[in-house]
Amino acid sequence: HAVMLDRLGPTVWHDSPGSAMALLEELEETARLWLLTDRRPEPLTESQIAELRTRFNTPW
């Protein structure tokens, strides 16, 4: 599991420290490749944010 926190960067967790580290490495490599494509992210819409809140049962 991973989340990207504004001004803090990625936070990852898994069943073991080794698995979490592998996940972080995969996340970093994917981000590097994505940046090489020169694409820029678009902010989520309010409805997309609401869907995520509902799906993951979280208020934030």
Q: What would you say this structure looks like, in words?
A:
The chain is built from 2 helices and 2 strands. The model has no long low-confidence stretch (mean pLDDT 90). The protein has a two-stranded antiparallel ribbon. It has one domain (2-55). With 60 residues, it is of the alpha+beta class. It has helices at residues 17-36, 46-55; strands spanning 2-5, 9-12. It is flat.
Percent of residues in helical segments?
40-55%
Strand order of the largest sheet: 1-2
* Rg, nearest Å: 14 Å
Largest sheet features: 2 strands, antiparallel
Report the mean per-residue pLDDT as an integer: 90
Overall strand count? 2
- What would you call the shape? flat
Number of domains: 1
Write the layout of secondary structure elements.
Blueprint: E1 2-5, E2 9-12, H1 17-36, H2 46-55
Antiparallel strand pairs: 1-2
List key phrases describing it:
60 residues; alpha+beta; two-stranded antiparallel sheet; 50% helix; 13% strand
